[in-house]
Amino acid sequence: MCLAIPAKIIAIDSSKIAQVDILGVSREAALDLVPQAQVGDFILVHAGYGIEVISEADAQETLDLIAEFPQLIADG
Predict the structure, then answer these.
(1) How many Cβ atoms from other residues are within 10 Å of residue 18's Cβ?
(2) What is the domain partition of the chain in residue ranges?
(3) Which of 21, 26, 41, 59 is least surrounded by CB atoms within 10 angstroms?
């Protein structure tokens, strides 16, 4: 199973590498597959690549679900 994580684009350099925020952690993501992505957009990131531009509402829904993971694991 693959998992793509929503991230907000904070900056984009001249080589189309974005600095993104993922749950408060800054990472880099290549924008080769989503060249239309802009600063402020939310993208799904998988294996260091942005793979889809998504709405802020969809990003937040997924992030809320991810936040529930620790409790789901603890409940077994």
Answers:
(1) 24
(2) 5-75
(3) 26
Rounded Cα–Cα distance for residues 47 and 3 (Å): 9
Asked whether 43 and 30 are in contact (CB, 8 A), the reply is no
Query: What's the maximum distance between 2 C-alpha atoms anywhere in the chain?
Result: 46
Task: Give domain 5-75's CATH number out of 1.20.120.550, 2.30.30.140, 3.40.640.10, 3.90.1150.10.
Answer: 2.30.30.140
For the chain, the residue count is 76
Indicate whether this model's pTM tops 0.70.
yes
Which helix (H) or strand (E) segment holds residue 60: the answer is helix 56-67
What is the number of H-type helices and E-type strands within the chain? 2, 5
Instruction: Please write the tens of the pLDDT for every residue from 6-54.
Output: 999 999 999 999 999 998 999 999 999 999 999 999 999 999 999 999 9
